[in-house]
């Protein structure tokens, strides 16, 4: 054999060996294949890119990662795939699995015990599903670093075994938004590597000092979220042991007593959120002089005394919320010296005096709420605040009782947006204006139509008169503009005053974008016609003109307001026909024209669902409302409301037709003489949507969670 033949043999040998390896070794382990097949068989949905029809090698299936040398499955990642069904315990046989992520799906049932005994598992994310029942007993996850089972329906107590000595590598534990109850287990103190702990939105309780002492033995903890539980009692001074905390949220619990003065030891703390508890006393000095704190939220407690912030020390403070407490004395005049402070809520306290003159130099101020603070002298307040160059949201509701808006033409706000107590034509960036429930008189200014960014206008419950300015129909943001909301603050809520069934209610909106595009002119003394040009406001969701003195017809062009959900024209002096074209408003969920001088009810679309109270007090002809006056026919040609005499001819015709039909049937039957008579299919249900779902039988279950709308998209 010469040298050339030798190399040919060598090459052929290598190719043959490579073919053997390719056919025998480059596929995932048979036990892993079996586990994955059992997993898919327990689902009600199909996983695209899985199965032998796609590839005989499961390492090539979507979401699967295999070890490059052993070809064992080490990662199973299928988040947001709209998977539905139960979670098979077979996944517990994937003993080399390091990552399991099935979050943002629709999986149900209990959690398999086998999953919590995967000794190589480092990441387990089952969040945003519909798992129920308790966490399995006897957790054995010695390699786990990230565990997230939040946003499910899990219940029972939290097992301390999550943090047994064999779980010391755990860094992130999230069990938020479930139904866990009972005391916080002291075993959490064994998770010495824990950096992020989220126990929020459950029914957890604590020991006599509010929180299990095990939590205070976590030196690496940077995020502690225990809000929205049933924790009570004083906040232990041992909270100061958590020296690496960056964010601490204990809001919406039952903590009481004074806030411990231990914040000097929390040298990295940036956010302290403790609103909606029962804290009393004053703000401790170590908190009111923290150099690292950027957000301080103590709203809705019983704190008292004067507000004494050390602004020279609080160099990082940007957001301060002390609303709904019992603070008294003057509004602190040194707040402008907190040089980065932009969002301030001091509403619903017991302050005395006026806004300090120093506020005219509050150049960092963007959001200010002083509602319900017994303020007076609105002219002086506005003279001061107009000099806040970066002010974008001002809330002064429930102040200045009995005062009138100043006519001073020198008042102007260049960048004012949000809920404000007055309007001026120079507020060119105005997006939201609510001046309802006052005693305003006069006409609606024509220049309201110049606010190109305005999407929410509520001037209801005043004494405004005159016509609705035609310029309102030219609000660009409601015609074709893109509604881009500038949020006034990430933490402060907005309150809208609503009159529901004769009762005044404050409705809270945590985000401005949750408000629907609205024009509410109700409960005034407005007169004149409804402009046909309202049709241009295609992005408007709510049009409320009830309880005025508007007259004339309802324009049929309102049917072009395709996004309209609420249309209330009740208690006016409108006349003519209710336009049949309004049936094109497919999103309309509330409609009322009660107490006008209208006639004719559209008998299609959403109008079939509206109750008689939506039409009462008119000249209408229909079975569930007052009948037409004697001798007057409904111009729509419906028979509803006619007297029995009007039906004499109809009844006679029906009877004659019935007798004639029976006679024909008998004749046909005799002619058939025993032959097979064709069955006439019952067509009663044809065309009635028999295949549709009973809308009334399916309710929406409201759960204590956020963000589920995005699952599996």
TrEMBL record:
Pfam family, one: LRR_1
Leader peptide range in chain numbering: 1-23
Membrane association type: Single-pass type I membrane protein
UniProt entry tagged with the keyword Endoplasmic reticulum: no
Location in the cell: Cell membrane; Membrane; Secreted, Cell wall
Ranges annotated as spanning the membrane: 647-668
Gene3D superfamilies assigned to the protein according to its UniProt record, in alphabetical order: Ribonuclease Inhibitor
SMART domains, sorted: LRR_TYP (SM00369)
InterPro entries per the UniProt record, alphabetical: Leu-rich_rpt, Leu-rich_rpt_typical-subtyp, LRR_dom_sf, LRR_N_plant-typ, LRRC69/RLP
Keywords per UniProt: Cell membrane, Cell wall, Glycoprotein, Leucine-rich repeat, Membrane, Receptor, Repeat, Secreted, Signal, Transmembrane, Transmembrane helix
PANTHER family: LEUCINE-RICH REPEAT SERINE/THREONINE-PROTEIN KINASE 1 (PTHR48057), REPEAT RECEPTOR-LIKE PROTEIN KINASE FAMILY PROTEIN, PUTATIVE-RELATED (PTHR48057:SF18)
Similarity field: Belongs to the polygalacturonase-inhibiting protein family.
Name the record gives this protein: Phytosulfokine receptor 1-like
Native source organism of the sequence: Pyrus ussuriensis x Pyrus communis
Organism lineage string: Eukaryota, Viridiplantae, Streptophyta, Embryophyta, Tracheophyta
């Amino acid at each position: 054999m010469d040298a050339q033949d030798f190399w040919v043999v060598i090459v052929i040998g290598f190719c043959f060996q490579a073919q053997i390896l390719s056919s025998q070794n480059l596929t995932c382990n048979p036990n892993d294949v079996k586990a994955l097949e059992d997993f898919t068989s327990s689902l009600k949905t199909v996983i695209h890119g899985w199965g032998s029809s796609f590839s005989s090698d499961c390492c090539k299936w979507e979401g699967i990662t295999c070890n490059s040398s052993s070809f064992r499955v080490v990662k199973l990642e299928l988040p947001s795939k709209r998977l539905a069904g139960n979670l098979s315990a077979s996944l517990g046989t994937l003993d080399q699995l390091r990552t399991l992520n099935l979050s943002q799906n629709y999986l149900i049932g209990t959690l398999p015990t086998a999953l919590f005994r995967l000794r190589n598992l480092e990441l387990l994310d089952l969040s945003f599903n519909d798992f129920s029942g308790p966490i399995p007993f006897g957790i054995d996850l010695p390699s786990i670093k990230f565990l997230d089972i939040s946003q499910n329906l899990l219940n029972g107590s939290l097992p301390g075994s999550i943090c047994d000595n064999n779980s010391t590598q755990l860094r992130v534990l999230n069990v938020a938004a479930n139904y866990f109850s009972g005391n916080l287990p002291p075993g959490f103190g064994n998770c010495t590597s824990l950096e992020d702990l989220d126990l929020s939105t459950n029914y957890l309780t604590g020991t006599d000092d509010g929180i299990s002492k095990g939590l205070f033995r976590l030196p690496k903890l940077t995020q502690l979220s225990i809000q929205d539980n049933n924790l009570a009692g004083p906040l232990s001074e041992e909270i100061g042991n958590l020296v690496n905390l960056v964010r601490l949220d204990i809001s919406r619990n039952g903590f009481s007593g004074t806030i411990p003065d231990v914040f000097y030891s929390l040298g990295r703390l940036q956010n302290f959120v403790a609103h909606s508890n029962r804290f009393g006393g004053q703000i401790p000095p170590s908190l009111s002089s923290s150099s690292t704190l950027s957000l301080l939220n103590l709203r809705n407690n019983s704190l008292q005394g004067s507000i004494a912030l050390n602004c020279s020390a609080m160099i990082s403070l940007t957001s301060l919320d002390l609303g709904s407490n019992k603070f008294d004395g003057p509004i602190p005049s040194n707040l402008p010296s907190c040089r980065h402070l932009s969002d301030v809520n001091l509403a619903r306290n017991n302050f005395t005096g006026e806004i300090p003159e120093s506020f005219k130099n509050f150049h960092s101020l963007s959001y200010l709420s002083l509602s319900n603070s017994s303020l007076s002298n609105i002219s002086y307040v506005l003279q001061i605040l107009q000099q806040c160059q970066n002010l974008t949201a001002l809330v002064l509701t429930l102040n200045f009782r009995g005062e009138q808006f100043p006519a001073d033409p020198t008042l102007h706000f260049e960048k004012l947006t949000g809920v404000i107590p007055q309007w001026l034509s120079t507020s060119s960036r105005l997006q939201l204006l609510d001046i309802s429930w006052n005693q305003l008189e006069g006409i609606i200014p024509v220049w309201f139509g110049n606010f190109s960014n305005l999407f929410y206008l509520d001037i209801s419950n005043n004494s405004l008169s005159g016509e609705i300015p035609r310029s309102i129909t030219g609000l660009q943001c409601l015609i074709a503009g893109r509604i881009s909301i500038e949020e006034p603050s990430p933490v402060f809520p907005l309150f809208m005053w609503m009159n529901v069934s004769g009762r005044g209610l404050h409705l809270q909106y945590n985000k401005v974008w949750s408000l629907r595009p609205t024009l509410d002119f109700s409960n005034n003394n407005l007169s004149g016609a409804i402009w046909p040009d309202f049709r241009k406001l295609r992005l408007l969701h709510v049009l409320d003109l009830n309880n005025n003195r508007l007259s004339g017809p309802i324009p049929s062009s309102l049917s072009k307001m395709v996004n309209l959900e609420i249309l209330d024209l009740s208690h006016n002096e409108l006349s003519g026909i209710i336009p049949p074209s309004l049936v094109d408003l497919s999103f309309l969920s509330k409609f009322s024209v009660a107490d006008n001088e209208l006639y004719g009810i559209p008998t299609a679309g959403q109008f079939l669902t509206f109750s008689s109270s939506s039409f009462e007090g008119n000249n209408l002809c229909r079975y569930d409302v007052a009948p037409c006056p004697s001798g007057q026919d409904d111009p729509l040609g419906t028979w509803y409301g006619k007297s029995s005499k009007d039906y004499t001819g109809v009844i006679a015709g029906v009877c004659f037709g019935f007798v004639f039909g029976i006679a024909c049937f008998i004749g046909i039957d005799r002619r058939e003489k025993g032959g097979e008579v064709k069955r006439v299919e019952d067509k009663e249900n044809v065309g009635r949507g028999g295949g549709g779902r009973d809308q009334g039988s399916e309710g929406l279950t409201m759960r204590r969670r956020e963000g589920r709308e995005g699952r599996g998209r």
